[in-house]
Amino acid sequence: MKIFQPNWVHHDEKSIFSIDIHPSGERFATGGQGCDSGRVVIWNMAPVLSEQAEANKSVPRVLCQMDNHLACVNCVRWSGNGLMLASGGDDKLVMIWKKTLSGSGGGIGAFGGGGGKSVEHWRCISTLRGHAGDVLDLAWSPQDRWIASCSVDNTIIVWDAQQFPKIVHVLKGHTGLVKGVTWDPVGKFVASQSDDRSLKVWKTTDWSCFKTITEPFEECGGTTHILRLSWSPDGQYLVSAHAMNGGGPTAQIIERDGWKCDKDFVGHRKAVTCVRFHNSILKRSAPKTNKLQQYCCLAVGARDRSLSIWLTALQRPLVVIHDLFQDSILDLSWSCDGYTLLTCSGDGHIACLQFTAQELGTPLSEEDKNILYQRMYGKNANIDLTAQAEKEMIVENSDFLNVSKSNPLPPTLIPQQQQQQQPQLGGMRQDGADKVVQPASQPAAAIKSSSSLAAPTPILKQIETKTADGKRRITPMFIPLNDDNGPALHATNNIMPSSIEFGSKSSETSTVEIKQRAHEEPTIIPPPAERATGEPTSKLDNRLKKMATAPPQKAEPMTVPTDPQQQQQQQLSAPSSTIQPAANQKLMDRTRQPATYPTGKATVIQGHSFKAFGEVRVQIQNNTVKTSYGTLSRVVGVVVTAQRVERKLWETVVGSPIVCFAVGAKYAIVCSQDHTIRMVDIKTGTPVFPVLSLTSPAVLSAFSSNSQLAGVVTESGILRIWSVPEKAVLLSTSCAEIMSGSFVTILHVSDKGMPFIVLSNGSSYSYCRKLDSWMLINSSDPVIRHGLIGNKTNAPVRNIKTYPLSTIQSYGSFSGPKTNSFAELHSAAWQTSAAIAFIENQIKICEMIASPAELKYWYSMLGFQLALNGSEEKIRQVLDDLLGASHNSLDPCRTLAGDDADDRSVLGISKQLLMEDVLNHLKTQTKWQRIYTEYLDQLKFLKERDGGGGGRDKPLME
């Protein structure tokens, strides 16, 4: 760390009350007293940071000086984009300055004062008049939507930065001088601190006072000129200026979680005047564990002329500097690169502190910071001006009256999940309009704590009571174990979920329910239940992993499966919770040897193995018959009676060891090491086909759920699917073109002959005979990863018959990004286009594999995404497509002769029904009401013309 005090930065020996660094880091502004007026000076940063630049006389020091304020300037603040500078002073005015070209515009303030020539020209573009007293502090909102000013007239005025000098609202409620104001980094709140010994938090949705905090300030006196409070860049902590604890001055830490005030920054001997958080969330590796830490940095200045720097990851301040000035420290400012801190004093001087990355850490990128905001609050740092306009929009359609006040609910694939959804482990809690999680890294520090209550873990319901001494007692309700939702949530090591509802002063018992975050889309794809290598990926408690990953227990004594391929195939073919055969059938797959792992090579089945369908078992016994011609393997069919008595039905022998086999309702397929394949009747053992031979031995075999189709995959990647009753090949192709060094670990054949395969590298495919090509189902493609991780439920969907696409995608081995970066779940720059591209591809796959239930779901999800983040052009394109030929037939110049009559439906689902689903989602957003009304009218016309839309009895829109 270096400290430098440039003595050439001064206001003619008058006080400097405020300082602020430009977002570019190339200049900074100071505000204070001039010779006979208020003064604002813009300085060059280069001579402050560099000795060479300071010594170079050709490098200017003063860029511009403005003496337009009639009285002392108390605050200067740059806008977030750096285009404007705001200054407020004792003349009750707020002035907005903007840079102009040299020699252009002229006007008041377009030139430097003191007789010197200005290097830059800044002119006052607007003068904001509204306060009845001195303006003491200013703050720009995120994205420069508003600017707030506070004054000795006890008010805070919020100005519309898009339409100066328009006043958005005057916040009234303080009974003393308001000396500081700051914004929540996601724009939900604005906070103010006053001489009336209170701090107030105001909601930006309706500008009402959301919370008033008085306890830490009850002993404070009006001994400071300003009270500059600050909000942490992650939004979790609001740190006030002058507070008291045990008779000593502190900087009060107010946690967003419950607005608790049980921690302070202590150590200053006199009242704290200003606090300023570093602009970025910082990260570095922890010294001992080498794990990634994320934390915030805070500078604190006080009347005792000392400055302290705190990191929330440390137990003590990073540095404390005593007697930095001859008078009180009045303002602080961090540079955007994160390593420079400027501070000013009432003695008319400034100081520059330069840090290194080793001392402070590395700032998170804006993208990563917005990803964190999205996960914590359901939105990024940029205030959605469109959403603000929508909030103020007049509702023109009565359909919007009932839904516009509620949060849009994402669609669910399985209807029962609507009642069974559980909160994600990254628990949410609601603070007014906000839904957040709480970082575990508390602002540590020589911190006085009045209590040490730990945040409760997320639960579905909890009973919370408060005792007379203010302590909370929570009785949790049992919920089933839940996955960690993959690395997406625990990618940041310092984020610990919290799920409590705060703001209640009642001592009565209250029930807290966790609701689904509105901006998240819980969907059908679960986190990968198991990797292709057999490695479990669930993040359960270590004590529970063995239990959770073990195969289900059966009543009858059975041994564990030998082949993980068979184990996966068993789950894929008929999970007990989804596909259930007739009452007298029970699909089983058991062997008697220790587990082995798939290698992509045909491996001889060791020992005895059997598979069963219903009452019939097919047993394999390799190398059990010794003859002079060689060793034979036995294949035996037995029936198991209700009394569990086995009766042998048939027996046959095979001249080569068996490497894989499968059993259906009527047939069994047996594949041998010598590349041969046998299809037999499971009741008689007679062959259905002659012995077939391929170029390499089979590694996987499977029947469709209706047992009419059988398929095999060989070592070399040859895929065959046969229609057994017709004794004909249905599909003959090769997987070699997509294997690229991997091998097939799962094979499934649908009732329509559509093959689904999962490779050892986690990718999955399905083959389309119409296109004569493999369709990509899952891979490491970033769009697919983003889509699958961002669209998942709490339990895997393993119903291959009804939801084939979701089931196959649930077996992928791809998770979120590595744990040293934020999960790429939400990024404002690309998430919308990526999500829509993914959903549209899901729709096309559903069409090709004939999965109507999933098709309807993904159309509904498309409507949900378009309603939240879509454009008008894209919405019209989707709705026009769903109108289809029915819409085109309205044109009298167009005949229906060339139109496909099936264009009115997809997979038997009416396009009008799909259009209704999309429109129902648009109805949740007021901004789409005119498009909604326009297309709803067209849909009503078509339904009336077609006689009620194909006989549907349901109302047009629900």
TrEMBL record:
GO cellular component: chromatin; HIR complex; nucleus
GO biological process: chromatin remodeling; DNA-templated transcription; regulation of DNA-templated transcription
Limits of the CAF1B/HIR1 beta-propeller domain: 1-360
Sequence segments annotated as region (Disordered): 409-432, 503-579
Primary role: Required for replication-independent chromatin assembly and for the periodic repression of histone gene transcription during the cell cycle.
Source taxon at top rank: Eukaryota
The UniProt record lists the keyword Nucleus: yes
Subcellular location: Nucleus
Gene3D superfamilies in UniProt: YVTN repeat-like/Quinoprotein amine dehydrogenase (2.130.10.10)
Bias type Low complexity, positions: 414-425
Domain Protein HIRA-like C-terminal: 685-882
Family statement drawn from the similarity comment of this UniProt entry: Belongs to the WD repeat HIR1 family.
Family matches, as Pfam families: Beta-prop_CAF1B_HIR1, Hira, HIRA_B
UniProt keyword terms in alphabetical order: Chromatin regulator, Nucleus, Repeat, Repressor, Transcription, Transcription regulation, WD repeat
Protein species of origin: Anopheles gambiae (African malaria mosquito)
Residue ranges the record marks as coiled coil: none
Biased composition (Polar residues): 504-513
Name listed for the protein in its UniProt record: Protein HIRA
